[in-house]
Amino acid sequence: MKNLLITFIFLFTFIASAQQTVEDDFEGNGTISTWFGDGANINAQFNNPYKESINTSNTVLKYEDVGGQYANIRFQLDEKFDLSEDYTFTFKIYVPLIGITGSQNNQVSLKLQNGDLNEPWSTQTEIIKSITLNQWQTVTFNFKDDSYINLNPGSAAPINRSDFNRVVIQINGEDNTDRVTAYIDDFLYDGTIAGDTSDEPVFDNLVWSDEFDGQTGVVTDLDNSKWFKQTYPIINGQSWANGEIQHYTDRVDNSYVSNGTLKILAKKETYSNNGVTKNYTSARLNSKYAFTYGKVEIRAKMPFGVGTFPALWMLGQNITETGGYWAATKGTTGWPDCGEIDIIEHWGDNQDFVQSALHNRSSFGGTVNKGGRSISNASSEFHVYTLEWSATKMTFSVDGIVHYVYNPENKNIENWPYDAPQYLLLNVAILPNITAGFSESAMEVDYVRVYQESQSLSTEDNNIKNQALRVYPNPSNDLITVDLGNVNTKGDLNLYNIAGKRIHTFSQNTQSKTHNISFLSKGVYFLQVATSNDSRVIKLIKN
Predict the structure, then answer these.
(1) Of 45, 72, 113, 501, which shows the fewest CB atoms inside 10 Å?
(2) How does 376-411 read in b/e, with b if 16+ C-beta sit within 10 Å?
(3) How many other C-beta atoms can be found within 10 angstroms of the C-beta atom of residue 163?
(4) Where in the chain is the domain with CATH 2.60.120.200?
(5) What's the burial of 93, exposed, middle or buried (CB within 10 Å: 0-12/13-18/19+)?
(6) Is the pTM of this model over 0.85?
(7) Where does the chain hold its CATH 2.60.120.260 domain(s)?
(8) Which residues belong to the signal peptide in this entry (predicted)?
(9) What fold characterizes domain 456-542?
(10) What is the dihedral of CA 342, 344, 345, 350, to 10 degrees?
(11) d(Cα 73, Cα 60) in Å, to the nearest integer?
């Protein structure tokens, strides 16, 4: 066996069980980053339109119920509230009369739920407070002394429960389609929650990017070392999914770089490919880079036009999709089992809305795994669309504001095929409802960046890493499978705890072997896999 100099460098940063406040002043100083509107539009940095009395701050959260039957806004934490000692929530609210329709009670409710469940509302407890229109006021929700409503009458009193991690705010009731506009500021919980224990990955190492830089005024083709232009129709060589009616081409006419941005240009024109003639063209790009876990940031501006359907998304590198860049060399699995991650989708007939979604065996096509938000300038201004993908969850945001978190409680092949490499796709499709007057419109992309974790546990080994190595499922319950890849049939496996102490050694003399880890407690570990030509450390999470 080749001698390897392997020096472990432990770079762990421990954060003691610090306590964290739960607050937001909507001036950029809060600890809440996951505000989400359900049937309601939100803007968490809206210029305060009523600087008066008790609230002269510059920015507030704007809540706009657009007629959703159960419209609300909410946020969710990773940790649970402990209401046994700290049980009070407060915020300021202003509801103008001019923003109300219907005859609902002027009220605001605060609901606590267990957001980790498939039906979070089933655990709900709620306090309702009356409000006065046309003035700022502070409302307080005391889950010890105020009158509360448990959705399940058999549930314990809120102060005797420890399962709440979601806060829902609802104005003027529910089960109605009346509209209401409100402004909220200075949200505060009077206690704290368990702080960061450093288990969450920090994706701070830029590993791949395209900045689409070029000479001003000069049109150039894409960097073909980074991008592949997919053109062969995936449905019988004739058409594309979703009822799309365009051809994708590899021409510079449809995808090019100019003035520092990528343009994917959808055009109305007659074009034939593979014996089929269509009336629209566009481009669909595949990245020649695939990865597992990390942060994707894409700064982009959507096209205009009813019937346009742009997307920034990802597919499993193992997809068997004829004509795709990876299919010939990596394709083993069909859709949706390969896993699809839609970082952002936009529909021209819903101009102010963007959405993120997941497609897998548990739900696909009209998937239930989705979340979106309204932004009024998706096609006129650049926004940063971000996916943070770890071994435990996916978090989607626009301009730093989270609108959807995907985190199945019991991960399995049905709902979590996301423990294997994925690649990026950028495209603009044309749907059958395209307007007759459409001529052309482009999606512009300023940059695409992929970040991963800096290795916490690393080796001083300069050999080329074996990218085929896989450890799955991860997170895992009792069993893990270690696949050393095609070139290795033997490996030494050492398991370390988060303090860097070796706690177990596995033997592996075959390419793929399943190991029992049921003896481990729940938590984070590091598995060092050393073969004849490689040494890698993989973060392992035990459920």
Answers:
(1) 501
(2) eebbeebbebbbbbbbbbbbbbbeebbbbbbebeeb
(3) 15
(4) 210-453
(5) buried
(6) no
(7) 21-194
(8) 1-18
(9) Immunoglobulin-like (2.60.40)
(10) 140
(11) 14
pLDDT string in tens for the chain (543-residue length): 233 333 333 333 333 334 678 999 998 777 887 798 888 899 888 999 999 989 999 999 999 998 888 999 999 998 899 998 899 999 999 999 999 999 899 999 999 999 988 889 999 999 999 999 999 999 999 999 999 999 998 888 999 998 899 999 999 999 899 999 999 999 999 988 875 444 578 888 888 999 999 888 899 999 999 999 999 999 999 999 999 999 999 999 999 999 999 999 999 999 999 999 999 999 999 999 999 999 999 999 999 999 999 999 999 999 999 999 999 999 999 999 999 999 999 999 999 899 999 999 999 999 999 988 888 799 999 999 999 999 989 999 888 877 888 999 889 999 999 999 999 999 999 999 999 999 999 999 999 999 998 754 333 333 334 456 788 888 888 899 888 876 556 777 888 776 566 778 787 888 888 998 988 887 778 888 877 666 677 888 887
CATH assignment, 21-194: 2.60.120.260
Which two structure tokens, joined as six digits, stand for 366? 């009209």
Residues carrying CATH 2.60.40.3080, the chain = 456-542
Is 345 an active-site residue? yes
Say if CB 481 and CB 513 are below 8 A apart.
yes
Task: Determine whether 440 is an active site residue.
Answer: no
Encoded tokens for 251: 């021409």
Cα three-residue angle 35-296-285, rounded to 5 degrees: 125
d(CA 403, CA 314): 18
CB 458 within 8 A of CB 539: no
Q: Which fold has domain 210-453?
A: Jelly Rolls (2.60.120)
Q: Which of 126, 297, 321, 345 is catalytic?
A: 345
Amino acid, res. 322: T
Other CB atoms within 10 A of residue 443 CB: 26
Q: Phi and psi at residue 282, in whole multiples of 5°? A: -165, -160
Half-sphere exposure of 58 (CA within 13 A, CB side): 4
Give the C-alpha separation, 356 to 403, whole Å. Answer: 8
Q: Which of 340, 381, 409, 460 is catalytic?
A: 340
Rounded CA separation 241/313 (Å): 14
